[in-house]
Amino acid sequence: MADNVPVFGNHIQEIIRCANFAAIKHKHQRRKDTDQTPYINHPIGVAFILTEEAKVYDLSVIQAALLHDTVEDTDTTFKEIEEQFGKEVMGLVKEVTDDKTLPKHQRKYLQIVNAPHATNKAKLVKLADKLHNLRDLNRQTPNGWNDRRVQEYFEWAARVVAGLRGTSSAMEKELDELFKERKITI
Ligand SMILES: Nc1nc2c(ncn2[C@@H]2O[C@H](COP(=O)(O)OP(=O)(O)O)[C@@H](OP(=O)(O)OP(=O)(O)O)[C@H]2O)c(=O)[nH]1
Ligand SMILES: [Mn+2]
């Protein structure tokens, strides 16, 4: 490495490679909000929660956060992720990817039962993912959702989060506030 390349230079390069990969993969996607926010705002927002709030600086966790919805929501394959970013990142993305071939109620149920068995790194990504989505719901109701569907999403998220506890006090505290506002006790 050249003398003028900082020690963390290669980490920065890896993070930007992931952000760029995710931006290209999600380029045609929009969030379900009325503003039609670009989808990439979500994975970047998840990674931002991890560094700013949870103080997580593990490279593979931040990479997985940026890539976490690429396989679930675009044509990206796990093979592609492994070739580009290695086995560990691919494994983390796999842990946070729902099987979209399953019926929705089963996917949602599997998140609740599988949460306690996830690795610590995957739990971090899952907590940040839920926190970002719940904040989005408080900011704007997605197109086609009513108050009841929003409340049910909060109730389901609280059950998933119950299985992720003991992972990040900062994120769990923020999530608890949101559940309290919704009068959810679990
Ligand atoms: N709150 C919110 N969510 C939006 C918006 N646009 C897209 N989403 C995505 O919608 C998903 C939640 O909606 P659902 O109807 O419950 O699930 P589904 O899309 O998987 O069928 C989340 O997927 P996910 O990230 O894979 O997480 P998860 O819900 O599967 O944990 C979230 O990222 C938006 O404007 N607001
Ligand atoms: Mn997500």
From TrEMBL:
It catalyses: guanosine 3',5'-bis(diphosphate) + H2O = GDP + diphosphate + H(+). The keyword Protein biosynthesis does not apply. Its cofactor is Mn(2+). CDD domains: HDc (cd00077). Keywords: Hydrolase, Manganese, Metal-binding. Residues 39-134 form the HD domain. Its EC number is 3.1.7.2. SMART domains: HDc (SM00471). The keyword DNA repair does not apply. It comes from the Eukaryota. It holds the Pfam family HD_4. GO terms for molecular function: guanosine-3',5'-bis(diphosphate) 3'-diphosphatase activity; metal ion binding. SUPFAM superfamilies: HD-domain/PDEase-like (SSF109604). PANTHER family: GUANOSINE-3',5'-BIS(DIPHOSPHATE) 3'-PYROPHOSPHOHYDROLASE MESH1. Belongs to the MESH1 family. ppGpp hydrolyzing enzyme involved in starvation response. This is Guanosine-3',5'-bis(diphosphate) 3'-pyrophosphohydrolase MESH1.
